[in-house]
Write a structure and sequence with these properties.
This protein is mainly α. The protein is 91% helix and 0% strand. The chain has one domain.
């Protein structure tokens, strides 16, 4: 059986993975965001 400490350790590991994914998504959006904004602006200008 899992003890309370082992369950807590598993939750911490999942939380760290979730934080890493969030940081990566924010970094990608920060890098790609301006290019995406320019692309949509160009599309609106064409229409």
């Amino acid at each position: 059986m899992l003890s309370i400490q082992e369950k807590g350790q598993g939750l911490v590991e999942y939380a760290l993975i979730l934080i890493l994914v969030v940081v990566l998504v924010i970094a990608v959006l920060y890098l790609i965001g301006p290019a995406t904004g320019k692309m949509f602006s160009n599309v609106v200008e064409i229409i």
